[in-house]
Amino acid sequence: MEFGELTGTKSGGRKTIRQGGFTMAELIIVLSILAVVALIAIPSFQSLAQNGRLRSAARDLASDVALLRERALAENRMYRISLNVAGGTYTLQQCNVPGSPCASWTPIQIKNFMGFAGDINFDSGFTTVTDYPFQPRGIVASGTIALRNGRGSMATITISASGRQNVQFNLQ
To answer: Does 71 have pLDDT greater than 80?
Structure first.
C-alpha cells in the first residue's frame, strides 16, 4: 500500500485542505449588527432599571409600614413613620411615654431613597399624610404616600385605617 492511498490522494496529486473560520469582512459585519442592536436596546434597559429601583423603594417603604404595625401590636406601644417630603427621607420612631397622643418620640431609623437611586422622591401633590402613628392595636390614620422617579413613573402606597397597605405602580 502506498502512502497516497492512506491519505486519500492519488499518487502525484495534491489535496487542498480548507480551514474553517470566518473572514475579516464577516466578523466586521456581525460586530456592526451587534453594535446597532446594543445602541437600540440600552435606553430600554436603563428605563427598566430606573423603574425597578422605584419598585424596590416603594416595597421597602410598604414593608416598613407593616413592620411598625406588627411591632405596635406585639409590644403594645405606639410607633410612627414620619415623612420628610422635602428631604426625601422618612423616620421610623417609637413612643417613649405610653398613652395617646404620644408626648415624646425616639427615632429608630432614618431612611432615604439614595440607596435605591438619587432620582426617587416623594410626590407632594399625591402624598396626603406625612405622619402615620400606629396605635397599640395597630390602627393608623389612613392616607396615601406617592413616590416618583426621574422618568415620571409613580408608585402609590395606600394605607388603610387597619394598617394594611396596597402598592400600585404607574410606570412610564
So the answer is: yes
Report the candidate in 66, 68, 63, 98 with the shortest Cα–Cα distance to residue 80.
68
H-state helical runs in the chain: 3-7, 24-75
**Can you tell me whether residue 156 is helix, strand or coil?**
strand
Q: State the DSSP code for 68.
A: H
Dist CA 92 CA 90 (whole Å): 7
pLDDT at 10: 54
- Output the pTM of the full model: 0.74
Higher pLDDT residue, 146 or 43? 146
Amino acid (1-letter code) at residue 70: E
Backbone CA torsion sign across 161, 163, 164, 168: positive
- For residue 12, is pLDDT > 80? no
**All domains in the chain, ordered by first residue:** 24-170 (3.55.40.10)
